[in-house]
């Protein structure tokens, strides 16, 4: 039998090592084990009571900006491709609003603009987009005053002008969803954001009608029911109608102006328990979105009023009353073609009282279960501040395993299916240390859209040019250039560049370039 010469054998082995190294960051990573190419990966960034950002009231604008940049840098390194930022925590605004006062969580005093002045929302959107992260404006629609005794309330707050639009429950005040003018007013607030800012999504959390408090019946809207609820058999049916009407109004209004913007809801994890309703989930929780918050999220999905749902599945894999897999299964069966992202309770990993969450594999197991369901298209972590201290080394698990390859945000076919044209005029500058690729933006596609960002793939000769997997992705970025520093002298690479539009449709054709790295391929380069 012919035996290859030692030098040739060595070169073959090294080339094989390079090929494998393009598939792995840590451990064995066969293509079938690679993370999904399309996966929504986001964090919630809460401003309410300075949970995540800014870290305290009264920070200078420069300090606020520095904190936000560091926050995004950290989450980008963790593999995130979206940020869900709370811009209207409670009847206030983290932007110059025509309707509501500046948030107290910026300056410490509601109604006080940043000094020196800047627009935090415009700043945050720009920072997110520069990292090719989607920006979803998180709005709490009906909470008006967090605490009647301790909140800073400006003279410009609508409570002072129209107290009849509000009710009090416990220590908080709320906009009354049963009043049609209230729903229209909040829709105008949302439409101001949609019209003025380049947001990718509008996001509501789980707060619609207030969560029930122990030994405190909720009767604050009985008079409103007498005025507006005659057509409904019960007050709860009327309340659900009110929230339905609000969601439909916001959906129709924003999609008429900017169809590309996504409307997302992050409800409590149980729509209804099966023992309450045959259509419900195999769970036994004491509250549900339908019965207690009067939010019929399943109907909103059926009616296509929302583009995605992100249930807060904040229970462990083994929790008996609402097992994590049971929640996944129900939501996966009830998305009606809309996107499903799962909310993860990252905050529980930091608190010792949540015993099940002190297991290092709790969130990794949840992410693995997510990928067992085709309907689950991604995750959102609550919240960004919970990553401080890197509990249970989750950041390493994301960076070097679960999110070790960058992912594209899943496209929404009901919004746009026209793919962009490929980039133009690809060229390369090559040395023993790097390959620097440059290209130009494509011409506009049939729908008038160009490229919002680009995907850079790398192959070696003999490999199939397969763009369906994340294995060969080197970068996903907005700038039309890329420098590859992970190269070996004497090797040959094939680079493929595609264009992606705002709705994450990828060009069907691409630009390709094969490059030879100068120098002799030697073993020492593989150990750097």
What does this structure look like?
With 528 residues, the protein is an alpha/beta fold. It folds into 2 domains: 6-33 and 416-527, Immunoglobulins (Immunoglobulin-like); 40-402, TIM Barrel (Alpha-Beta Barrel), CATH 3.20.20. The chain has 13 helices and 18 strands. It has helices at 6-21, 61-77, 104-107, 120-130, 158-161, 180-196, 222-228, 235-257, 289-292, 297-302, 324-332, 362-370, 394-402, and strands at 40-45, 82-88, 134-139, 143-145, 166-169, 172-175, 201-204, 262-265, 308-309, 339-344, 376-382, 424-430, 435-440, 453-459, 473-477, 481-484, 492-500, 511-516. The strands form 4 sheets. The chain has an 8-stranded parallel barrel with strand order 1-2-3-7-8-9-10-11, surrounded by 4 helices. The protein has a 4-stranded antiparallel beta sheet with strand order 15-14-17-18, with no helix packed on it. The two termini are 36 Å apart.
């Amino acid at each position: 039998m012919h035996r290859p010469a030692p030098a040739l054998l060595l070169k073959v082995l090294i080339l094989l090592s390079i090929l494998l190294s393009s598939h792995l960051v840590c451990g064995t990573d066969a293509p079938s084990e690679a993370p999904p190419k399309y996966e929504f990966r986001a964090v919630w960034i809460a401003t309410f009571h300075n949970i995540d950002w800014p870290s305290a009231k009264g920070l200078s604008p420069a300090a606020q900006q520095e904190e936000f940049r560091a926050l995004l840098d950290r989450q980008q390194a963790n593999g995130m491709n979206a940020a869900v930022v709370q811009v209207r925590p409670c009847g206030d605004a983290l932007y110059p609003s025509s309707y509501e006062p500046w948030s107290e969580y910026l300056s410490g005093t509601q109604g006080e603009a940043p000094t020196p002045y800047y627009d935090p929302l415009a700043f945050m959107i720009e920072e997110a987009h520069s990292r090719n992260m989607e920006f979803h404006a998180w709005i709490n629609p009906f909470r008006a005053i967090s605490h009647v005794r301790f909140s800073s309330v400006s003279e410009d707050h609508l409570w002072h002008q129209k107290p009849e639009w509000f009710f009090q429950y416990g220590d908080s005040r709320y906009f009354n969803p049963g009043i049609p003018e209230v729903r229209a007013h909040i829709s105008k607030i949302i439409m101001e954001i949609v019209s003025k800012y380049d947001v990718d999504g509008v996001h509501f959390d789980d707060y619609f009608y207030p969560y029930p408090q122990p030994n405190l019946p909720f009767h604050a809207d009985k008079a409103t029911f007498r005025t507006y609820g005659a057509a409904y058999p019960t007050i709860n049916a009327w309340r659900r109608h009110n929230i339905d009407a609000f969601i439909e109004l916001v959906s129709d209004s924003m999609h008429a102006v900017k169809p590309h913007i996504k409307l997302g809801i992050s409800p409590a994890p149980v729509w209804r328990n099966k023992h309450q309703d045959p259509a419900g989930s195999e769970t036994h929780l004491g509250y549900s979105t339908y019965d207690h918050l009067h939010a019929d999220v399943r109907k909103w999905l059926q009616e296509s009023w929302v583009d995605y749902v992100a249930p807060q599945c904040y229970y462990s894999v083994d929790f008996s009353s609402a097992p994590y897999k049971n929640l996944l299964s129900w939501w996966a069966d009830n998305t009606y073609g809309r996107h499903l992202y799962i909310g993860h309770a990252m905050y529980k990993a930091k608190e010792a009282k949540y015993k099940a969450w002190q297991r290092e594999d709790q969130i990794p197991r949840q992410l693995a279960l997510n990928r067992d369901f085709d309907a689950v298209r991604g995750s959102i972590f609550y919240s960004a501040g919970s990553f401080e201290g890197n509990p249970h080394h989750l950041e390493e698990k994301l960076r070097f395993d679960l999110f070790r390859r960058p992912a594209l945000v899943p496209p929404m076919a009901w919004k746009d299916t026209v793919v962009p044209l490929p980039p133009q005029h690809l060229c390369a500058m090559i040395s023993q240390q790097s390959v620097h690729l440059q290209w130009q933006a494509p011409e506009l596609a049939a729908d008038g859209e160009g490229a919002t960002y680009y995907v850079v793939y790398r192959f070696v000769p003999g490999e199939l040019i397969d763009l369906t997997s994340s294995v060969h992705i080197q970068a996903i970025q907005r700038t039309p250039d890329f420098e590859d520093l992970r190269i070996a002298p004497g090797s040959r690479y094939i680079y493929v560049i595609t264009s992606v539009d705002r709705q994450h449709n990828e060009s069907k054709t691409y630009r390709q370039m094969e490059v030879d790295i100068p120098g002799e391929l030697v073993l020492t380069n593989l150990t750097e």
